Amino acid sequence: MARRKTALIALVVALSACTPTPSDPTATNGSTTEATGSSTTTTHPDPTTTVVDPPHPSVDVPTAAEFDTFVDETTIRLLELEPQTVTDIGGRTVVGLVDTTLDDLSPDTAALRIHIAERAIDALDGVDRHSLTSDQRISAAILEWYLSDIVALGAYPDHAYAANYITGYHAWFPEFMADIHPIDDLPGAESYVARLEAVGRQMEQVAHQVRRSANAGVLSTTIGRDIAVWQANNVVGPAASHPLVTDFTTRCQAAGIDQATIDSLVVRATAAIDDSVNPGYEALVATLTDVDTRPDSTPGLLEVPDGDAYYRTVLRHYVSDDVDPRTVHDRGRAEVDRVTVELADALDAAGFDVDDLGLAGAIAAADDAAGTTRLASDHDREVFLRATDARIDDSVSRFSDLFESLPVTPVEIVRPRPGRESGSGAYYNAPPMDGSRPGRYYLSLASDAFPMLTYRTTNHHEAIPGHHFQLALQRESTGLPILQRSATFSGYAEGWGLYAERLAFEAGIYDDDPLGDIGRLRMELLRAARVVADTGIHALGWSRSEAIDYLTDLGFAETNAASEVDRYIVWPGQAPAYTLGMLKILGLRTRATEALGDDFDLAAFHTEVLRHGSVPLAVLDDVIGSWIDEQR
Q1: Which residues contact 311 (CB under 8 A, 6 or more apart)?
Q2: For residues 96 and 570, what is the distance between their CA atoms, to the nearest angstrom?
Q3: Domain coordinates of the chain in residue numbers?
Q4: What is the pTM of this model?
């Protein structure tokens, strides 16, 4: 899956979902924290406030000639509040933004973000859309959606779980430092240490937000809290042998930094573990264990003040379309019915009699037949990763006729960082706009036996023709506005990932692999069931056990079902994005096919879906509608 929140990035997954980078949709980014550069101790001012008062963007209405600059300047003003996002997308080298600090999570910065968005909306409202080019009109619609989403979510500053174990800053920081923060030279090494020195303050801000939410009646379940505590405790450790120090040393040496300088930086980094990292994470653990939790019997947002309105807002945010929870629930049930029939037919055709075994029994038999790959050692895991890499490379030719252009940036298959691997399935991190690192497909190999039934489907979702095709092309599109190169709207991103799974089937990938196709349908069923369970929990008041029972009745193992449901509880509104996004793309493809007949070109359709960067589903309707008119 792909990643993020109200900020400009998105990512990732439980089972075969994708796991994101931070954070929750109402959390705020943007750091004004400054490390001294030479100090070996870090002082943490009041985490609830920050001095952020840069110049406000002009509300002068841009002309058509000024419009592209207006879009980029508005995006840059928002990115200035999110230095970690700047690093993630390669914004320092592409647009010259400072990214040596951490995101500031204070209410002041949240208010500033909303203020910037509101002023930009005022300016955008005055633009004569008829004076713009067709691509500019699309950019205007995307920006309008993005800005209005910031404002809408800003009305609920305490409703998201700040210590969300999937998207929380506490969970992301170790991976961010190890895999995203670059150490190619001395400035990169110095800013790495500065970020270590600053993270204590950021964790204090997370802890403060946890208390604010609790005071507002927004509580985590006990399970969600316990996982977050486990994650935070995993980061705390002896300074000299801490992975954030040992990995730093290795990377500095690889960057060619002289040993005396490395030794000096390691002294600072070691001190930062003792003075910032460990105290910050310990303070977060203390807060999490101190606040109340919510009973499993009432895990949904209906139990939260204004929870119904917030759920509608956050569902709109993730789906990136105007949707009604009850309508979404009913559509999910219809999809579950459709996919269940297809899956039962595929199981019967492969010799797994559903009438005799039941759906769950037939799926279990297929799972057993597909088998596992034994991973008894790290060597076995490395061999498996390289085999996956080769399999993905070999699959590119199967899709070349379905696309007019392919990404230049390579995809790298790696394991998640220790402490995150056991809680993740597979996810993808997009390459930065500056091309300084590849796209990364993270594949969890924590178990000593990797199940193979859904293996191929996961590869197609995360890599080719899924997220890597989509997001690498987006980042490589130098002619697009910065927003469209850097943003990720979940309905579009995850919808494309699920559509890519279907595309693999249509390309004949499973013609000689009936078990693989059963795995594909099993994952499509899971995504449809997510729509039902997520809306069931948060719009209809289901208990945790009701949601688990719903998934187990569809043939999913109880442990996997419980993991899925706990995800929906802490990350409301995100799970429906997969199926609703796929249905949108398939619906638009059908519309184009019917309108253009023999003139319909699937590769050209894919180009139009992808060439504008990340697009809210609400805007994609108009994009494809205009394209159809142009093809006639």
Answers
A1: 301, 302, 325, 538, 539, 572, 573
A2: 35
A3: 161-217+222-293
A4: 0.91
